[in-house]
Design goal:
Elements lengths: L1 H22 L27 H12 L18 H6 L16 H6 L18 H12 L6
Helix pairs in contact: 2-5
Length: about 140
Amino acid sequence: MRKTRTFFVCAMLLLALALVASCSDQTGPNQASEPDVPLKIKFKIAEGPSYSEDIQPVFNEYCISCHGPDRAENGLRLDSYENTMKGTRYGAVVIPGWPEASTLVYVLRRPASQDIAMPYHGRKLTPNRIKNVMYWIEAGALNN
């Protein structure tokens, strides 16, 4: 099982690197200054995304208006690692090592009910940004 997973991750890494290399020649007015690519390809298998560099900026851009120091819907604040791990008045939203069971991932993935899909107002996170949050949780949701 572990060899299969390692092989799959290596194959995906090679494919992603080939895609990045083929796209790096293209420039144009619609090209984003920062590619929206899952961060896992940038790291060794044993590492995950950095909370301070890769996750908190996403929260700052998409979540802080409703889950910050001025307004904390359901008691959830995403303006710091400590507050993120504290969760809501109903409990934790991040379960380190288990993104599928983390409430944060569930609401970001746009569940069937739009009442609980986050962000509630404004533009939604891209699938790759959601994957980056999932990779961070899968790697243990470290404060790094």
